[in-house]
Amino acid sequence: MSETNSAAETAATHRYTAAMAADIEARWQDFWDAEGTYEAPNPTGDLAGDPEEAAKPKKFIMDMFPYPSGAGLHVGHPLGYIATDVYARHQRMTGHNVLHTLGFDAFGLPAEQYAVQTGTHPRVSTEANMENMKLQLRRLGLGHDKRRSFATIDAEYYKWTQWIFLQIFNSWYDTEADRARPIAELVEQFESGARTTPDGREWGALSATERADLLSEYRLAYASDAPVNWAPGLGTVLANEEVTADGRSERGNFPVFKAKLRQWNMRITAYADRLLNDLDGLDWPEAIKLQQRNWIGRSEGARVEFPVDTAGGITVFTTRQDTLFGATYMVLAPEHDMVERIIPAAWPEGTHPVWTGGHANPAEAVTAYRKQAAAKSDVERQAEAKDKTGVFTGAYATNPVSGEKVPVFIADYVLMGYGTGAIMAVPAHDARDFAFARAFELPMRCVVQPSDDRGTDPSTWDDAFSSYDAKLVNSANDEISLDGLGVVEAKAKITEWLREHGVGEGTVNFRLRDWLFSRQRYWGEPFPIVYDEDGIAHPLPESMLPLELPEVEDYSPRTFDPDDATAQPETPLSRNADWVDVTLDLGDGPKKYRRETNTMPNWAGSCWYELRYLDPTNSRQLVDPAIEQYWMGPREGQPTGGVDLYVGGAEHAVLHLLYARFWSKVLFDLGHISSAEPFHKLYNQGMIQAFVYRDSRGIAVPAAEVEERDGAFYHAGEKVSRVLGKMGKSLKNAVTPDEICGEYGADTLRLYEMAMGPLDVSRPWDTRAVVGQYRLLQRLWRNVVDEETGQVTVVDTEPDEDTLRALHKAIDGVGQDLEGMRFNTAIAKITELNNHLTKAGGPLSRSVAERLVLLIAPLAPHIAEELWRRLGHTESVVHQDFPVADPAYVVDETVTCVVQVKGKVRARLEVSPSITDEELEKLALADEAVVTALGGAGIRKVIVRAPKLVNIVPA
Prior knowledge:
This protein is of the alpha+beta class and about 950 residues long. It is built from 31 helices and 31 strands. About 0% of the residues have low confidence.
């Protein structure tokens, strides 16, 4: 505490000081815990015998799962937690049964990296971090139902994470029913012949491996050999969403390469349309909805088959099927499965030398180019400005509309992550294809009439011509002509032709890829999957859950040179032979199996945690259906159900939020929950920023040690730079909530964070400004308590009319602001009321004092609880009714009207708010000051804006 504060606060024995705040806050936190003040009753049991409580509307309020960092909290972290606490408290006071709690997302990379560095088990460090964080959060007076708290690393929690994985594994998406169904129902269709196998054989004629492989093509959770994002520096693969725009790992900033590995995937693409369509019914920021729409990336077009003599055909997806006559070559992604099937042993006769890359044969050329492409990120591969590279596969495909043989290349500008991983190249009308065709001396054909004067010979063009408004040309065969048609008409006509001839069809494509669900890590949920001697995956029965993590000596996956794209993953669990190789009886006698040695990604635990909050001790089922229906079921205005308010950072727009929506939809389809969406209303809070000071080397220096002199900043005598940025330990500008609580109290910290500005806007931290909210609480205290005696000073008399007007205006405004999460303006209105009461002098009326305390209770609960008790109440302020404004006092009796003559203010009139324009004009023209200002001149115009303005224009 500063010396100034310390000296001032010893002036009165019962003055509100940091020491008094600490005592008050600790006492009431203990009281709330002991009394279970924030425990939210469930509809089964708790509410069954209490009709009054059961009749209350409910409100389920959530913060995004915090990760328990070893660095602890800085003052930026609790911004959202304080906001949801204020909102939850207001909802309780307005008659709601409020569920508000907090758990911990405790699996993940930081704890594992710490374990690798120190040898400390991740559970030990994580649990220590959680305990520290719990103490910090408790000190803030957050009103959480602590009975419902848990961590994702609790075995009883991840038992159900594993159970959900098995539900997804044992399901398939029925496109006709547009929902997930149990895989057993698909097996029944194959067994009965209602659904035929791909080669027409009966189900019973397939081997066990063939049946498993076929079902894997349908399962919503499946393992496959597929291109993945491989980060050798981390020793693990990553989901697309965990790779930054510049092709590096989100965590650690390591290079990410494409590699082909066998990994678990979630078939989230089956839900693409529903994930897109259901956004419309959610109360989310439009910016977040747009990010999800763009990530899902729905586009309409056509699938077209290009026959290849040696290997069936190559399927492409295109949104410009109208330009099919202009396709003069094809390109496959280097990783495409078709490549091995189409390459011949030798170069075809007459192969252009530039197409071969100088290699002796196609196999050699493809192998070399694949290695080259694997060393590049997706961003590097698609950079518009880079030189186009590629190599001829030696194979030709047939353009289905022109009958022409077109060469098939592989090139890194085509990715497996979009469409089919193959394109028909129309170089005259696509900039990338144009550049590639120029580099490899490939033919170009104009099939869209240019709108400029460049002509129709692409060999004379400087770049491609692309348009959706032009007419088609050079697009006809013996059966169909698109010439003269617009793009829309041509697309429809060629799509129908393709369908009739069995070489294509109209279809919808998505940018969204299946969710890569494997991690080569130790500190994550083990997969409840074992493999038999034939490599067939078998789910563990529910009776064997949870499958707990074994103890290991080495927590780290094998990491490699970050630039070594050829390295192969090795997981920590794979080195534990006693755990990996097991004998189990899965219903057909004891057999030897091998466990899955990857673990689930850290996103798994946060995909469903809202459901565990509802029923956290249920060991028999995921969640009691009646409890889930009560808290999250569909209702008026919330057709897909979900949490009533979910607050967190916008950075989770396409990671956690998309994954959680997918899991909810699967569980909904299978009948386990009634809510098809997890979070109905989403609110993104802004960020608390802080100044970062750096020396001449660019290294951050401790912000607390920086001095300002004449507008410049100095550290240890050296001039330093200052920029506004994030707050964090590494930036040496972090301020902990413990520091602020120690100097001013938790209520002051709560008020300051809520008063800094609109909740959804980032704002800079200024420790010097905290004292303003501290003084508000001190003035509030003085208005109720005598600082010398400690006695309550209120009187049982009615307040005057001015005070009633100030009070009820504050009640009306603060109530609306708290409901709308405008906490900064709510505090401003409370401050205005408190200042009015202070200036009025004399003791407060009890009715005014009590309502003032109730107004501030959601924001500063400790001092409110203390004052409420001192005012003679025996029940907690937490569940008191929020004050209701009297409309008669909310409307002003009079309004000040400004009267201008020639643009200058000549008079101010006190008038009724309901005065008419005609009445106000008469009053203004009759005013003596206005008559004098006019000086007998005539009037050309009178502009009236009742009740606040009259503007008189003389003739």
